[in-house]
Amino acid sequence: MTSNILAVLGRLRHFWIEGVAGVALTLSVVSAASASLPPPTRPLVKPALAPVAAVDAPAPPPVFACSDPVPGYEVDSPYGLRRLPWERQGRLHEGVDIAAPTGAPVLAAADGVVVRKGDSSTYGRFVEIRHGEAGLTTFYAHLGRIERTAQVGAYLGQGTILGRIGLSGTSTGPHLHFEIRQAGKALNPQAFLDRKFETPADLPIKAASFVSPHVRVAEVSFIPEAKRALMAEAAPSRGRHGRRVRQTLQLAQADTAD
Ligand SMILES: [Zn+2]
After folding, report:
1. Whole-angstrom Cα distance, residue 106 to residue 154?
2. Is 249 within the bounds of a domain?
3. Residue 190 within a domain
4. Number of helices (H), then strands (E), in the chain
5. pTM exceeds 0.85, yes or no
């Protein structure tokens, strides 16, 4: 009996020693951990509000952000001097042509206000949008249909459908003729497409004004009826096309009303 009691006491003592050792170990780990932390400090200065407000403020919108007017379709006839098969010489193609199926949506390339729409014998059904801050206009021609939203005076956000692809006016097939102008001067739209410009100084006006002296002979899939008689008269010109075209171009531009 006594030996049993002694045995129990012995085990209890053993547990007690282990318990004390465990507590001691825990305390030493905690104190080691707190020793590695920096001493608690109290902020001396309240955080300033100004930098937080600056981060939250929205960035000013770019002066001109230009997206594809017919997404998914490439430019297949660029800006530049071009001779069509029924022309004896050539003239400046004042925009780009984007061929797409009839009825495909034509979108506003940038935010702006419709300043003109109409129907001309050459451009067919067209819409013109002014992009105020940038001093630029975009022009969409040969439309099959103009949407009701594209009324003169209406504000159209970038990407708004303004019309549908067609072949109204003098057109060799369903396509969009797309121009960008500043103060009436036609610029190369490919200097702007898929790009954003933060300030007016960032606009690539100089690069977009460059016209190569090379005259490209356009290949067309369709000859408009009105142009067929001219085909017999037109012969490929020789020599320094660029110079001659530039001279005739100035005369032609003086006559161009639209
Ligand atoms: Zn064109």
Report:
1. 16
2. no
3. yes
4. 5, 15
5. no
Could you tell me the two tokens for 103?
């009825």
Separation of CA 17 and ligand 1 centre (Å):
96
Distance (angstroms) between ligand 1 centre and the Cα of 76 equals 10
Domain with 161 in it: 64-79+94-210
Q: How far apart are CA 37 and CA 108, in angstroms?
A: 60
Q: How far is the CA of 50 from the centre of ligand 1 (A)?
A: 52
Question: Has residue 27 been placed in a domain?
Answer: no
User: For residue 121, how far is its CA from the centre of ligand 1 (angstroms)?
Assistant: 14
Q: Is residue 89 part of a domain?
A: no
Residue 170 CB neighbour total at 10 angstroms: 17
Profile the chain (258 residues) by mean pLDDT over runs of 10 residues: 51 48 44 50 59 71 96 95 82 95 98 97 97 94 97 98 96 94 96 96 96 84 73 55 40 32
Distance 158 CA to ligand 1 centre (A): 22
Beta-carbon contacts of residue 78 (< 8 Å; ≥ 6 apart)? 93, 96, 188, 190, 216
Residues with Cβ < 8 Å from 44, sequence gap 6 or more? Answer: none
User: The CATH number of the domain where 110 resides is what?
Assistant: 2.70.70.10
Ligand 1 center–CA 156 separation, angstroms: 23
The total of structural domains in the chain comes to: 1
